[in-house]
């Protein structure tokens, strides 16, 4: 006979409000009642929870997909908890097999260390440095002896590993699975043992690995962590997970104009998802935004502009975000369109054809694409007073200096 489910843990109003905020946008909490109990125990004993999230530095740049987890860590900090930002410099050299249909390329220690340095610089655009402990899992994984590793592998069976969806599919298809890939979830799980974490955050694709950490803590006679999983942030294409390799990402170190402009390009449906997962606005504020969009009292463009300005400010400052928004409005509003104060200069040879200049100035990837842009009337000559004239002759020789605009956002100053 199955054991009865534990009684629902009631929380004081203040803690219930925290619980609702911390679980906003979360796909799943395991076990949810245990998480409520941890919040209550932390509150009554005045002992902060140890909240962990791990990031393998397999690439140098973080994007908004990573920011979903980091933003959730910041919420825990706001409620007084201790954040462990784990840089998986050791596990990155193995490579996480999650969702992979083939064995991953192994990174060198030099590549990993270089990427790890950039992570340390980027995370404090969101996290409070005074409340963050940055840890590297090489600190404990590097010290494990063969005897320790064998002891660790004895905690899990091959059958359990093959319960992972990606492993089982590869095994059924006869595709190779290296033993080192079996080590990855064990080592990620051992991170939780080494750090004695109370909570671990991760994406929904990390569910197996996160639960391994919980299991191992129990086998090492520790209190077991709760697992909180965030949905994978959909990229700018509105279809696939945000990824640098797919080009559908917004990097947190991109130029403010690019961050703002990319956010203004997303669909209305995606905007609401981004509000839930990325905004600092309260649950009540977001509910009012949804209501306003539904009844027509709030225009989608204004809601999107508010979100774009908030996120741009998070990675820069309020003043930079305000200036970026003003600049974007000038460029994209035909009635207010102006000339950007800062733009690249391109030195050209007098008499060069317009298409050649467009391509060489970086406004188009090829001469044929430059010609297409001219034919579609998206190339303009801009005067100092902001007045514009569309250029329609792609063979036109250019013999005087002026500002060239391609589409809505790209400007270059021609200098002979």
Automatic annotation (TrEMBL):
Superkingdom field: Bacteria
MF terms in GO: ATP binding; RNA binding; tyrosine-tRNA ligase activity
Record flagged with keyword Iron: no
CDD domains for the chain: TyrRS_core
Residues reported in the UniProt entry to bind ATP: 244
Keywords of this entry: Aminoacyl-tRNA synthetase, ATP-binding, Cytoplasm, Ligase, Nucleotide-binding, Protein biosynthesis, RNA-binding
GO cellular component: cytosol
InterPro entries attached to this UniProt entry: aa-tRNA-synth_I_CS, aa-tRNA-synth_Ic, Rossmann-like_a/b/a_fold, S4_RNA-bd_sf, Tyr-tRNA-ligase, Tyr-tRNA-ligase_bac-type, Tyr-tRNA-ligase_bac_2
Motif 'KMSKS' region in this chain: 241-245
Record's catalysed reaction(s): tRNA(Tyr) + L-tyrosine + ATP = L-tyrosyl-tRNA(Tyr) + AMP + diphosphate + H(+)
Matching Gene3D superfamilies: HUPs, RNA-binding S4 domain, Tyrosyl-Transfer RNA Synthetase
PANTHER family: TYROSINE--TRNA LIGASE, TYROSYL-TRNA SYNTHETASE
Function: Catalyzes the attachment of tyrosine to tRNA(Tyr) in a two-step reaction: tyrosine is first activated by ATP to form Tyr-AMP and then transferred to the acceptor end of tRNA(Tyr).
Assembly and oligomerization: Homodimer.
Official protein name in the record: Tyrosine--tRNA ligase
């Amino acid at each position: 006979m199955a054991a009865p489910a534990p009684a629902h843990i009631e929380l004081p109003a203040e803690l219930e409000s925290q619980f609702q905020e911390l679980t906003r946008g979360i796909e799943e909490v395991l076990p949810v009642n245990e998480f409520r109990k941890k919040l209550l125990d932390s509150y009554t004993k005045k002992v902060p929870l140890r909240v962990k999230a791990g990031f393998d530095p397999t690439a140098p740049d973080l994007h908004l997909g990573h920011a979903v987890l980091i933003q959730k860590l910041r919420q825990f900090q706001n409620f007084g908890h201790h954040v462990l930002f784990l840089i998986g410099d050791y596990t990155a050299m193995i490579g996480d097999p999650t969702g992979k249909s083939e064995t991953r390329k192994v990174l060198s220690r030099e590549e990993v260390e270089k990427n790890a340095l950039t992570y340390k610089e980027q995370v404090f655009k969101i996290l409070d440095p005074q409340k963050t402990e940055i840890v590297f899992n090489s600190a404990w994984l590097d010290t494990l002896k063969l005897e320790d590793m064998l002891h660790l592998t004895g905690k899990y069976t091959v059958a359990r590993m093959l319960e992972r969806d990606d492993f089982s599919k590869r095994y059924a298809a006869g595709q190779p699975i290296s033993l080192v890939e079996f080590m990855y979830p064990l080592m990620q799980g051992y991170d939780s043992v080494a750090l004695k974490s109370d909570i671990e955050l991760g994406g929904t694709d990390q569910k197996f690995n996160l639960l391994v950490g919980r299991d191992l803590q129990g086998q090492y006679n520790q209190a077991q962590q709760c697992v909180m999983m965030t949905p994978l942030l959909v990229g700018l294409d509105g279809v696939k997970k945000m990824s640098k390799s797919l080009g559908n990402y917004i990097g947190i170190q991109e130029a403010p104009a690019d961050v703002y402009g990319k956010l203004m390009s997303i669909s209305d449906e995606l905007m609401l998802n981004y509000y839930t997962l990325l905004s600092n606005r309260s649950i009540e504020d977001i509910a009012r935004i949804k209501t306003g969009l539904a009844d027509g009292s709030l225009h989608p463009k204004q809601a999107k502009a508010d979100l774009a300005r908030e996120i741009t400010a998070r990675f820069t400052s309020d003043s930079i975000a305000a200036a970026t928004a003003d600049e974007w409005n000038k460029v994209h509003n035909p009635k207010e369109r102006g000339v950007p104060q800062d733009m690249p200069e391109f030195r050209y040879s007098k008499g060069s054809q317009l298409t050649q200049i467009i391509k060489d100035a970086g406004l188009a990837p090829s001469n044929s694409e430059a010609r297409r842009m001219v034919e579609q009337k998206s190339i303009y000559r801009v005067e100092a007073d902001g007045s514009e004239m569309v250029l329609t002759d792609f063979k036109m020789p250019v013999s005087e200096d002026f500002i060239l605009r391609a589409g809505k956002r790209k400007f270059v100053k021609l200098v002979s």
